[in-house]
Specification:
The protein has 582 residues and is an alpha/beta fold. It contains 19 helices and 21 strands.
Length: 582
């Protein structure tokens, strides 16, 4: 395993500190370009406040059309960079942005109706609202919910806070001028870059200077074309560059706020000037920073009597989640949490191995992946490598680490996100399902690093008998998104839900970050989101990321057409038909 020791330069290796910048003629030219683009934002930002909801909706319509126009080029560039022949993953990114724009348009259409009546934003039909123990829980359904039958999305408002839509956005229209936000882009998924920028512009009324992550430099031209309506108005500009350019931007006086997607280490470098915070000796960055920083993502198996079909379905599901983007996802499953002595555990683990063995190895394009992989394998000699004989260059095998002990709070795989194709498992002692759910919740909250999202798999018989205990676990899991029976990545993709860490992380222990994005319904004071799905999709259908989906590309292409054209009977039938063929 030591052979995976290739060093690749990472932005994480360089502090976001102006004193570390290595000056050159080329860099001076780059910094001048950055300053010019930030100045354009400063000169035109007041005009953004004058753009009406109707005009904003028209801008979003242009962005949707631009996405469709560059779709082939977008998918081709990303697939070549990641060395994959299957285009499903990048088609998914196109769909996410088109859907996000359409959901924002829907919200702005409702805002226009409300303004005409001089009333607050009210949706038609209004979302279903529950109040449980003084907390509002909003079931958000949108016109495209038909494309995900059986999926229910819930926004849980901070306890004690009012139910309010669009209030915080409307307040920003009263300011003298918008803030200038620096958005530091992710390096793993192109949709994150665009959705973060759209959130700052349309949800928070801030104009944006966006810095591409060097891993996604190839996406610059795509973003230039897609965001032309915003670039022409000088409310959005973007630049390439590495950590030095990021440091320069972070410390520009004209930058008011910072949003980043990346690692805890980079957050600390920006906020504290060091990979590890030390409030006694370090002076923190004074600009507000929001962030999404990943997670050691758990999947909890709530036990019960699963059939062979159940086991195969969820092994197939999980294999697809692990393999997606070579596991370079903040939502990639990392720790499977089983009840000790669950009679189906060994069979499930074997089925998962079989499904992973059927999947092609992936190119480890993300910086540092080979080092992280080697470290995990050294820490856990029992690691089982799947398809090791096919490994070459930067193509890593799938790695599975079974039965990691749970009694060590500093266990390496609990406190370090692998961000490479590795999955681990733990088994928790229990006296029955209620006891297991309580202990599994405590284990995830207290021993696993991060609090972005998690999944809990609940067999219908378990839900029926132990409904109260299951709901207690859902409530007590301190994650920004708790997904029941489905992958939490769906919550990211929907756009209607907010996406971010469980609130109140401290800058001295930032975990998965702070703040959230997406939230196309403009619900204020969000605490967490809950996504519920059936134990198995209707008629045995599969979501496009399933490891053995036979028609994922056509399914996503039809879904993109559905969203871009805002539905329609025949497009709905075509999408459902393509999905069933999988």
């Amino acid at each position: 395993m030591i052979r995976w020791t290739v060093r690749r330069t990472s932005e994480d290796d360089i502090a976001y500190n102006p004193s570390n910048i290595r000056m050159s003629v080329e860099r001076e030219i780059a910094f001048k370009e950055i300053q010019e683009k930030v100045q354009l934002l400063a000169d035109h930002r007041k005009e953004w406040l004058k753009v009406t909801f109707k005009e904003r909706s028209a801008i979003l319509d242009q962005i949707v059309n631009n996405c469709q126009r560059v779709q082939t080029k977008w998918v081709k560039l990303a697939s070549e960079a990641k060395k994959v022949t299957e285009t499903t993953e990048e088609l998914n990114n196109v769909w996410i942005i088109i859907r996000l724009c359409r959901q924002l348009q829907y919200t702005f259409e409702e805002a226009i109706k409300a303004q005409e009546k001089d009333k607050p934003i009210q949706f038609t039909p209004p979302p279903k609202v529950m109040q449980v123990d003084g907390q509002y829980r909003v079931i958000v359904q949108d016109p495209s919910s038909v494309t995900l039958p059986g999926i229910q999305a819930e926004v849980w408002i901070h306890p004690g806070k009012p139910l309010q839509q669009g209030g915080l956005l409307m307040e920003t229209f009263q300011q003298e001028e918008p803030l200038i936000s620096l958005v530091l882009g992710a390096g793993n998924q192109s949709s994150i870059s665009m959705s973060d920028a759209l959130y700052k512009l349309f949800n928070e009324n801030q104009v944006v200077i966006f810095k591409h992550n060097p891993v996604l430099d190839y996406f610059y031209d795509i973003m230039e074309e897609v965001f032309q309506p915003l670039i022409q108005r000088n409310v959005f500009h973007h630049v390439k560059g590495g950590a030095d350019e990021g440091a320069f931007l972070c410390h520009l006086d004209q930058i008011d706020t910072i949003h980043m997607t990346g690692s805890e280490k980079v957050f600390n470098l920006i906020h504290w000037g060091s990979p590890k915070p030390d409030p006694e000796t370090q002076t923190p960055q004074t600009k507000p920073i929001t962030s999404e920083l990943g997670c050691v993502t758990p999947w909890i198996f709530a036990g019960g009597d699963w059939s062979d079909a159940d086991l195969k379905y969820h092994a197939n599901n999980l294999a697809g989640c692990i393999a997606q983007n070579c596991s370079f996802n903040c939502v990639a499953p990392k720790v499977l949490v089983f009840p000790k002595d669950w009679e189906h555990k060994e069979k499930f683990w074997t089925l998962l191995q079989e499904h992973m063995n059927d999947l092609p190895l992936r190119f480890a394009y993300y910086p540092g992946a080979t080092d992280r992989f080697a470290t995990f394998c050294q820490k856990y000699p029992q690691t089982k490598l799947i398809r090791e004989k096919d490994t070459h260059d930067l193509y890593l095998p799938w790695a599975m680490i079974d039965d990691v002990p749970t009694n060590n709070k500093t266990e390496y795989c609990f406190s370090n996100e692998a961000f490479c194709p590795i999955i681990t498992s733990v088994s928790i002692e229990n006296s029955g399902i209620p006891d297991f759910l309580e202990k599994a919740t405590k284990f995830c909250n207290e021993k696993l690093w991060g609090n972005l999202s998690c999944t809990i798999l609940v067999h219908p018989a378990v839900q029926k008998i132990y409904d109260r205990e299951v709901e207690t676990a859902v409530k007590n899991l301190k994650y920004g998104c708790v997904a029941v029976n489905v992958w939490s990545a769906i919550a990211f993709s929907l756009g209607t839900l907010g996406w971010g860490a469980y609130p109140d992380n401290s800058p001295t222990d930032i975990q998965s970050g702070n703040g959230y994005v997406h939230n196309t319904f403009l619900l204020d004071f969000m605490e967490k989101n809950v996504l519920r799905g059936p134990f198995k999709m209707m008629l045995g259908s599969k979501l496009p990321y399933f490891s053995n989906h036979k028609n994922s590309q056509s399914t996503l292409e039809s879904l993109i057409q559905w969203e871009a054209n805002r539905g329609g009977f025949f497009k709905t039938i075509n999408f459902l038909y393509q999905g069933m063929k999988g």
